[in-house]
Specification:
Order of helices and strands: HHHH
Keywords: Membrane, Transmembrane, Transmembrane helix
Main location: membrane
Largest sheet: none
Shape: elongated
Strand content: under 5%
Oligomer: single chain
Helix content: over 70%
Radius of gyration: 22 Å
GO cellular component, one term: plasma membrane
GO molecular function, one term: G protein-coupled peptide receptor activity
InterPro entries: 7TM_GPCR_serpentine_rcpt_Srw (IPR019427), GPCR_Dmsr-1 (IPR053219), GPCR_Rhodpsn_7TM (IPR017452)
Number of strands: 0
Number of helices: 4
Amino acid sequence: MVYENDCLLLRITYLSTGLLFNFLPCILLVIFSGALAHRIRTVFSPSRLTVCEITSISSAESARSSRIILLIVLITFITDLPGAIICVLVSFMADRFRSDVANKVESLIATLVMIARAWNLVIHVCVSRRFREVEKDYKMSLVVKLSDKQ
């Protein structure tokens, strides 16, 4: 069995998998989602919009988009962060932890990840029409602003 001889390569693989494929994407998702939510709120803030744009774009749409982004971030955190923690623990713990605990927990985490990916797909499909409408309104507001400058 691979676990019995305390393979250094196996430990490095678990550590790099936990950090590079689970933890780093979670952190980057939080950073980029926060930036996106902030940008959505600043673009659609009432102080930046004209009277014509306020009627076509509501702050409820930006709040809804921010909630959807937050939901996707939470789903990813619930599924990917435990995987990162287990991989890092496996790389530092004894062989017995790997064989007894990690194998059982990893299958549970893999099931959670598959369920989360399915929910992300459902969320994107349900929201894609509304998201396209908000994006179209944003592009229209940019065209109006550019035509006003000329």
